[in-house]
């Protein structure tokens, strides 16, 4: 297993994996419009500050993705992960931990100081991040407001 930067030829495979992971338990996202999914993925991977990585197996198949952005902060650069996922048939096999370790190595070479992300408390990802060294910021709040 190797973590590499996403390339143009990876986009369709990444979209298929993303759709499979997030359209099923526990997320049940309803990506019914392929164009909307394509726009979302491109929002994440085509921006100037995007940092998008994939985990590929020995056959070259994509088994994981980390899609996010690099921001310059007063403490240095940080990587905000918007989406992190592992293939459903590869979960609970240590690949998420391996993927994160390889991501840390890449971030260190780019002098990125922190990783930030958000998840829901009632999904398995919450305990996964805790087990892998992430801490919940007790003084931070994530707000949302629906636009009419």
From TrEMBL:
The keyword Transferase applies. Coiled coil: none annotated. Keywords: Transferase. SUPFAM superfamilies: Acyl-CoA N-acyltransferases (Nat). Residues 1-148 form the N-acetyltransferase domain. Gene3D superfamilies: 3.40.630.30. One of its GO terms (molecular function) is acyltransferase activity, transferring groups other than amino-acyl groups. It comes from the Bacteria. Signal peptide: none annotated. This is Aminoglycoside 6'-N-acetyltransferase I. It comes from Oceanobacillus limi.
